[in-house]
Design a protein that fits this description.
It comes from Kaistella antarctica. It is built from 4 helices and 16 strands. It is an alpha+beta fold.
């Protein structure tokens, strides 16, 4: 019984549940002060290959994992990445495993990064299924999924987390408007700001994300139309 209890304690300890993010391969490094870390295709011709980072262990704290990956990438001057699937014995490629994956690391001159003007990415919560509406058209987001659409000139798009206490944003196409990323969050109960009594009830929020982090999420989340 003592051995069983000890095994359970070890298995549930933070050490064994911690994620391990390592530079698994370094070919070269690049000296630069770029802060960005953008996703590119693996066959992107203008990219200089630097190495690989490997993530071992699952966590739903995506921001923490991204921070660890970003730190490792910057150790060798990487400002771009692509997903690198594992190859099976039969030479097929394995499906994405959120508990174990690799990213190839690159340096790309800022002028060569591809643009997606007037594109919008909507990224789900990592924790729960959620229904939102886009111009009153309901769309169901399973946890850890995302979708993409293009803004058409002359149209205004209303995105809402629905419900009396939900959030709503309105966006429209503009000339040379950079790609936009938004993440959905589920219902929450929060205390009001200091000095304001009561609590703040929300049925969902829509948060704008920085491009580097958002593109990391669209790598480890599943796309749906």
């Amino acid at each position: 019984m003592k051995k069983l209890l000890l095994s359970l304690l070890i298995a549930s300890s933070p050490f064994f549940l911690a994620q391990n993010v390592v530079l698994s391969k370094v070919v070269k490094s690049h000296s630069n002060e770029d802060k960005v870390f953008y996703k590119i295709n693996a066959d992107f011709a203008s990219a200089e290959y630097l190495g690989e980072v490997e993530v071992r262990g699952f966590s739903d704290n995506d921001a923490e994992i991204f921070g660890m990956v970003y730190k490792k990438a910057k150790e060798i001057g990487a400002n771009a990445f692509s997903y690198k699937p594992f190859q099976e014995v039969d030479e097929t490629f394995s499906k994405f495993d959120p508990g174990h994956y690799k990213l190839s690391l690159y340096y790309v001159s800022s002028s060569y990064f591809p643009k997606e003007d007037n594109a919008v990415y909507l990224i789900s919560s990592p924790y729960k299924k959620q229904t939102i509406s886009i111009n009153n058209d309901k769309k169901i987001f399973e946890e850890r999924t995302f979708t993409k659409f293009e803004l058409k000139s002359g149209e205004i798009y209303t995105i809402s987390t629905r419900g009396l206490l939900g959030s709503t944003i309105k966006i429209a196409a503009q000339q040379n408007q950079p790609v936009q990323y938004f993440q959905l969050s589920g219902a929450s109960v929060n205390s009001n700001d200091y000095g304001k009594p009561g609590i703040n009830l929300k049925s969902g929020d829509i948060m704008r994300l920085e491009q580097s982090y958002a593109q990391f999420l669209t790598t480890i989340y599943q796309y749906f139309k």
